[in-house]
Design a protein that fits this description.
The chain is an alpha+beta fold and about 270 residues long. It has a domain at about 1-150: Jelly Rolls (Sandwich). The chain has helices at about 135-150, 155-165, 170-180, 185-195, 200-215, 225-230, 235-245, 260-265, and strands spanning about 1-5, 10-15, 25-35, 40-45, 50-55, 60, 65-70, 70-75, 85, 90-100, 120. It has a six-stranded antiparallel β-sheet, with no helix packed on it. A three-stranded antiparallel β-sheet has the order 1-4-9, with no helix packed on it. It is globular, with a radius of gyration of 19 Å.
Length: about 270
């Protein structure tokens, strides 16, 4: 999940993880309210899975349909659509954002497809014990996950790299043939370890790619040219995909900071 401040309604800090953990953990993050009254805020999909520890008051997630209790941990599955949340005055969330496949380097889970677009309770024994006023939060998280790292390599890594290199514009049947795996097995593995199908993953990578092109100041191409260059049928197809993931029109993307990489964020050590 990826949070974006349309106004300064919350303070969002990114914490750098240990270099050994960075291939698996995209970031630790902390969100605290900056307002005295409830404010709506949008969260955009980023292809990642998060563990969230609620260190503040009760927090309503999933468009207000799920309540996160104080000092409780939760698992947020891969998101395929945006959601809106309400940031309360006593909001204080600590999150661990795993890169795609990163979660499976630390945890065994029957199938992450079971939690796609969902938030569920996560056992307290599966996360480090952290309180609201703890110091050296980053070091506590690093130590916990460093000791928990058990499955550093994953057979899907090469498959995902192929899809990323093609910016999502490659038929899944071709991907399967390139990696000598059946389409059915590829589908099963993606749903188990990412929570989404290979077609959905390729579609999301394609979406990320075209959004980055649109947001580049030097991009002078028309939407139709961009659509055709990135594997969409036409500009209407492109627009519909952007709206599905973000709720926005292509013309609204310039000032939305939801595609930052760890290098662009300017991570801080806490």
């Amino acid at each position: 999940m990826n949070l974006h401040d349309e106004q300064i309604v919350s303070r969002l800090f990114y914490l750098s993880s240990h270099p050994v953990l960075r291939p698996y953990i995209d970031a630790y993050w902390v969100m605290r309210s900056e307002k005295n009254s409830p404010v709506s805020q949008r969260i955009y999909p980023d292809g990642c899975i998060d563990i969230i520890l609620n260190l503040g008051g009760e927090f309503l997630a999933n468009n207000g349909t799920f309540k996160m209790k104080n000092e409780t941990a939760y698992l947020v599955g891969t998101m395929t659509r945006y959601i809106d949340i309400t940031v309360e005055a006593d909001t204080h969330l600590l999150g661990v954002r795993f890169k795609p496949l990163g979660f499976s380097a630390f945890y065994e889970f029957a199938s992450l497809h079971e939690v796609t677009n969902k938030t569920i309770g996560f056992g307290s024994r599966l996360v480090p014990e952290i309180r609201q006023h703890d110091q050296n939060t980053g070091a506590i998280l690093d130590n916990f996950f460093y000791n928990k790292l058990s499955n550093p390599n994953h057979p899907l890594s090469a498959v995902m790299e192929t899809i990323k290199n093609k910016k999502g514009a490659i038929p899944i049947e071709q991907v399967a043939k390139l990696h000598f795996i059946s389409h059915r097995q590829l589908e099963r593995n993606f749903r188990r370890y990412l929570g989404i199908s290979p077609k959905e993953y390729a579609g999301f990578i394609r979406y990320q790619s075209v959004v980055q092109l649109i947001r580049e100041q030097t991009c002078k191409k028309s939407l139709l040219d961009l659509a055709l260059d990135t594997g969409f049928y036409d500009h209407a197809h492109l627009t519909n995909e952007i709206k599905k993931y973000s709720g926005l029109l292509p013309s609204q993307l310039q000032n939305v900071g939801f595609l930052q990489t760890s290098n662009e964020r300017g991570d801080v050590d806490l």
